Amino acid sequence: MEGIVGYGAYIPRNRIKVEEIAKVWGADAPSYKRGLMLEEKSVPSPDQDTITMSVEASKHALKRAGIDPAEIGAVYIGSESHPYAVKPSGTVLAEAIGAVPDVHTADFEFACKAGTEGMYVALGLVKAGEIKYGLAVGADTSQGAPGDALEYSAAAGAAAFIFGRENLVAKALDTYSYMTDTPDFWRREYQYYPQHGGRFTGDPAYFKHIIGAAEGIMNKAGAKPSDFDYVIFHQPNGKFPFRVGQMLGFQKEQIEPGWLVNKLGNTYSGSSPLGLTATFDISKSGDRILIVSYGSGAGSDAFIFEVTERIDEVRDLAPKTRDILDNNKKYLEYGVYAKFRQKIKMAD
Amino acid sequence: MRDVAVIGVGITKWGELWEKSLRTIFVETALLALDDAGVDRLDSMYVGCMTSGLFVGQEHIASMLADYLGQNPIPAARVETACSSGGLALRLGYIEVASGMNDVVLVGGIEKMTDVSGYEATYALGTAADQEYEGYHGLTFPGLYALMARAHMDKYGTTREQLAQVAVKNHQNGSKNPVAQFPFKVTVEQVVNSVMIADPLRILDCSPITDGAAAAILCPVEMAKKMNKPIIKIIGTGHATDTIALSSRKDITWLEATYQAAKQAYAMADKKPEDIDLVEVHDCFTIAEICVTEALGFVEKGKGGKAVEEGVTAIGGKIPVNTSGGLKSKGHPVGATGAAQIVEIVEQLRGQAGDRQVKNARIGMAQNMGGSGGSTLVHIFERE
Questions:
Q1: Least CA distance to A29: which residue of chain B?
Q2: How many angstroms separate the CA of residue A234 from the nearest CA in chain B?
């Protein structure tokens, strides 16, 4: 049986509140908080990017996995904020954790589902017997244009998973992907901020694909919503995961442990993967977990995991996701946030 | 001139129709009107459309729509007076049939607005204002109607709650209309606490951005009688213009073009406001409905707010206004709005309006307005 042998999370300590952003743009903070169920979001420091956060999350995953990093045969980072347009992120991560040179590395990009995309491929290679271990990271320092609705949610964070065949923390019982060409959100080369289709990102995009993937994997596995202890959906705002969960027949209680977005924001490629790490943190042996990502463009990857008894041994070997989210926070004013996110143009 | 009847109407569900193109929406709707009329060929057609060029990058749509409706080589024209383009299509079709030039004419409207972003849609709609004197200085339509609302409140004591009651009433009506974009009810509290757009107008004071079409088939009354169709006669038509810049008007709370167009229609039909059983008006913003009911003579100048508060304009009131839900709840695909008003009036006069039926409705009116009132079409219909 294949599955996850170690998992890890990383979230920068900086936060900015919805009110602080709304104040600058003369926007109505209560309506954002009510309408999108957002309170604050994480912000990377100037010396943090997708690579540094991937390294942090991967180190945490290695602690839980307890394996020799040299045995990792694949290193994948999924992100839409790779620091370089040309030059891989994955090589830096592979080097930093000591997985080089006997390793396959690739950077994935598929809007917010690039993280689960790497997971899908790493798990596939393990299943095929090509590699002993595969590391997949979903990480983003998400971009939202100043004043755009996205600015209230675009956040930073990373989640890492090491796949293998022995000493599993969670068995991977099933996978399924659901994909169409649906241009709801995009950023072209040389553009700094993404553009989106407004309300078009809802029904024909997020909801259609998540429902398609969730129903697809449940049909494949012969499962129904009540068969799962927990479920994680991509979290572009607070409202969507609950609404799609309700449409599919899941209960609030199944969603809540992995629902981080109100305090974290949308970490794009890290979003549903971070929800999975938070859910592992509170799960017990035998729990069944469904995760469904969503990436604009558009598609969803779905996985069914079953937690093993090894969770009790590894849970405390690295920082737990909720602890990172709730502690050691530092609140920024908009000016400092703008500087950190390079929204201020400096002299050459 | 010959008497003219509406013998068929068609409308399909309005909303954000991302899966359908402009031509698909129009053809599906026009086919319903042809089916309803029981005809399969047209002599000509007029299509109201404000700005397909800015919304979908396609001009020259009349020939295209005639083609996809299987009606080439009939004459087809797209007509435009901003948001009153649909009403203009009706007037031109009426004149063509009344004159004896042609017998069976389709009049309709279409707008496909959701293929562009909110900013682009606001710009496209803004081209119906005076660009040099308003648009380039930053005024948008919510801004223009907010000025009218503010002036009406100052001059006549119209209240914030009275504005809200227009939205409450229209959503109440629209909740019973299966084609409405937003068929749900709202409360005064929800309206007055919704997101601010242009003080004093909030989001629930504003009509939405909508994809949709509507169509009607006209023919001479004599022909309609032979076809054994329920006959809804067009007994009055009026069309008037005003300055398109709000700043050029003597009184920005008064819609002179609506008053003038109504005067023509009343005179032609030999009717008075008291004779009208129901009216569809152009409530692009809540304040617009208040001003329009005054200019049409249903309420005294300055009393439009009070009238909605007292239920005068509700279904069951003295003069039911916007039984369809109006632009507010049904949606506002700008070029189609005037054509959709015909559909509502015809369904009401035929007694086919379901839960929103006005009892014993015999005479109905439609008022369709472009921009901030720079052009207006008024039509009066009577069931024979």
A1: B195
A2: 23
Using alpha carbons only, give the angle B247, B248, B253 rounded to the nearest 5 degrees.
65
A contact set with B (CB within 8 A): 28, 31, 195, 197-200, 204
Identical fold, B4-117+210-232 and B133-202+235-383? yes
Q: Quickly tell me which residue has 């959709």 as its tokens.
A: B340
- In chain A the domains, ranked by start, together with CATH numbers, are 3-169+318-340 (3.40.47.10), 172-307 (3.40.47.10)
**Strand partners for A138:** A78, A159
Instruction: Transcribe B75-100 into DSSP letters.
Output: -EEEE-BTBTHHHHHHHHHHHHHHHT
The per-residue pLDDT of chain A, averaged, comes to 96
Mind telling me how many Å the CA of A96 is from chain B's nearest CA?
Answer: 43
Least confident range from A144-148, A260-264, B33-37, B107-111: namely: A144-148
The answer to whether the Cβ–Cβ distance between B16 and A31 falls below 8 Å is no
Residues 6+ apart with CB under 8 A from B245: B129, B130, B133, B134
Burial class (CB in 10 A: 0-12, 13-18, 19+), B48: buried
Task: Say whether A28 and B118 touch across the interface (CB within 8 A).
Answer: no
Tell the burial category of B190 from Cβ atoms under 10 Å away from its Cβ (0-12, 13-18, 19+): middle
- Which of B117, B195, B196 lies closest to A198 in CB terms? B117
Distances (CA, A) of B312 to A15, B38, B175, B295: 53, 37, 19, 16
- pLDDT tens for B41-92 read 999 999 999 999 999 999 999 999 999 999 999 999 999 999 999 999 999 9
d(CA A61, CA A138): 13
pTM equals: 0.85
Which CATH class name applies to B4-117+210-232?
A: alpha beta
**Residues of chain A contacting residue B117, judged by C-beta atoms under 8 Å apart:** 195, 197-198
Q: What are the residue boundaries of the structural domains of chain B, listed by start? A: 4-117+210-232, 133-202+235-383
Q: Which tokens is A146 given? A: 């100043």
Task: List CB contacts of B78: < 8 A, sequence separation 6 or more.
Answer: B46, B47, B48, B49, B52, B60, B61, B62
- Closest partner residue to B18 among A28, A195, A200, by Cβ? A200
Q: Which of A31, A36, A195 to mutate to test the interface with B (most CBs of B within 10 A)?
A: A31
Fold of B133-202+235-383: Peroxisomal Thiolase; Chain A, domain 1 (3.40.47)
- What is the set of active-site residues of A? 80, 112, 234
Chain-chain contact of B16 with A197 (C-beta, under 8 angstroms): no
Which ranges of chain A does DSSP label H, i.e. alpha helix?
A: 18-25, 29-36, 50-65, 90-97, 114-128, 208-221, 239-248, 252-255, 261-264, 271-282, 311-314, 321-326, 334-340
Chain B residues with CB-CB distance to A195 below 8 A: 117
Interface contact flag, B18 A198, Cβ < 8 Å: no
- Look up residue B243 and give its amino acid: T
Does residue B117 sit at the A interface (CB-CB below 8 Å)? Answer: yes
B18/A31 touch (CB, cutoff 8 Å), yes or no: no
The rounded distance, in Å, linking the Cα atoms of A90 and B269 is 78
Q: Which residues of A touch B196 (CB under 8 A)?
A: 28
Average pLDDT for residues A58-68, to the nearest whole number? 98
Whether residue B364 contacts residue B350, with contact meaning beta carbons closer than 8 Å, is answered with no
pLDDT tens readout for residues B313-353: 999 999 999 999 999 999 999 999 999 999 999 999 999 99
